[in-house]
Amino acid sequence: MHRLLAAGLTVVMAAALAVAAAFGIVAVLNATPDQPNTPLVHYESPRGGSE
Predict the structure, then answer these.
(1) DSSP label at 46?
(2) What is the rounded CA–CA span in Å between residue 46 and residue 20?
(3) Calpha distance 15→33 (Å, rounded)
(4) Cα 17 to Cα 23: distance, rounded to the nearest angstrom
(5) Degrees (nearest 5) of the Cα angle 20, 25, 26?
(6) Hey, which bits of 1-51 come out as E strands?
């Protein structure tokens, strides 16, 4: 009986660990990184206004 209880507890703990790892991976993949609000390309506007 002791081995059966230990095996059942091991299966339950392994399943719980797998579910927790899956939720952790999904949470990491859904996290949005902080992105700076600076453009990569800058276009200078004309200073005189008429060209």
Answers:
(1) P
(2) 57
(3) 30
(4) 10
(5) 100
(6) none
∠ CA 14-15-16 to the nearest 5 degrees? 90
pTM > 0.85: yes or no = no
Written as six digits, the tokens of 22 are 């899956």
The total number of residues shown for the chain amounts to 51
Q: Could you report the per-residue pLDDT of 1-46, keeping only the tens digit for each?
A: 899 999 999 999 999 999 999 999 999 998 777 777 777 787 787 7
Q: Which residue has the tokens 């999904």?
A: 26
CA distance readout (Å), 4 to 10, 13, 16, 41, 43: 10, 14, 18, 66, 72
